[in-house]
Design goal:
single chain, alpha/beta, Rossmann fold, Hypothetical Protein Tm841, Chain: A,domain 3, four-stranded parallel sheet, 13 strands, globular
Length: about 290
């Protein structure tokens, strides 16, 4: 008997292997460049467009798309459905999913739950993989799983590095004051996103080398703050893998107690909002 179905959005970088293994349904966001709107486009084309100074716009899945994905799972025999979305402060995707639930038949409404990860890309992926583990390996029910996922929000955060803050500012994800302060010097801005709050934590890292040194120190402090836990760091990048991969390899060698995972390429939707040279790490601990 199929108990729990999962719907996610396309910003999470969920692998085809995971999608097939757990029959995960994906609601795609769309991206618009000029008069072209599509669900599928390469990061290279997105970054090239941004470098030319052209606008790149993204749109959340419509409620109808979410409704279709949810109904597919119920029609396939699943008893309950969990919809896992990127942060509600970064996109209207969470709201769109909730509207979709209100459009379902009452019986399906009562058995569908929407979870706001308050994160994005590797962070959202972490919650998806955790939900799969809790459902299918630990045999937890829906209420127990959501309780564990909610607790995990306080146990991790996203750290990411960008070439500059211009793309994030133009996309409306960073306030003007923070943008100005973060752009005064020609440095690699380092930002933290946790519980729907975006902050600049360093404005002094010179190049990737300086940024990595800062993040390495942050990992050490994180481990010191939460001793005796299981730690993880999941990597993703926007367009240039060489420097992030080198840092990833270095962390694997340095921290034997850190579960370092290479997620790989972030989605084109994330690329549109972060811009060229972006890379991120989801840093978390588990009890």
């Amino acid at each position: 008997m199929k108990k729990y179905g999962i719907v996610v959005d396309s910003t999470s970088s969920v692998s085809e292997e995971l999608i097939e293994k757990y029959n995960i349904k994906v609601a795609n966001l769309t991206i618009t460049i000029g008069d072209k709107t599509t669900e599928y486009i390469s990061n290279e084309e997105v970054i090239s467009t941004l470098k030319m100074g052209q606008d790149v716009k993204t749109s959340q899945p419509s409620p109808e798309v979410f409704k279709q994905k949810i109904e597919e799972l119920f029609n396939e025999g699943y008893q309950e459905v969990l919809v896992i979305t990127l942060s509600s402060t970064l996109s209207g995707t969470f709201n769109s999913a909730n509207i979709a639930v209100s459009m379902l038949d009452q019986d399906m409404q009562d058995k569908t739950f929407v979870f706001d990860t308050e994160s994005i890309t590797m962070g959202a992926l972490y919650y998806i993989e955790l939900a799969c583990k809790l459902f299918y390996e630990d045999n937890l029910n829906m209420v127990q799983t959501i309780k564990h996922l909610t607790k995990a929000k306080d146990q991790g955060h996203l750290v990411f590095v960008v070439d500059d803050l211009g793309t994030i500012f133009r996309q409306g994800r960073l306030g003007r004051v923070k943008y100005i302060l973060g752009s005064i010097l020609r440095v690699k801005p380092i930002l933290v996103f946790k519980r729907n709050v975006l902050d600049i934590v360093s404005r002094s890292a010179r190049g990737f080398k300086g940024a990595f040194k800062f993040i390495e120190k942050r990992i050490e402090e994180f481990m010191g703050k939460y001793p005796g836990k299981k730690y993880l760091a999941w990597f993703a990048y926007v367009d240039e893998p060489k420097a992030p991969k080198s840092f990833y390899d270095g962390l694997k060698e340095r921290f034997s107690n850190l579960d370092v995972k290479w997620v790989g390429l972030a989605s084109h939707i994330v690329a549109a909002h972060v811009g060229p040279g972006g890379m991120g790490i989801y840093l978390a601990y588990e009890d």
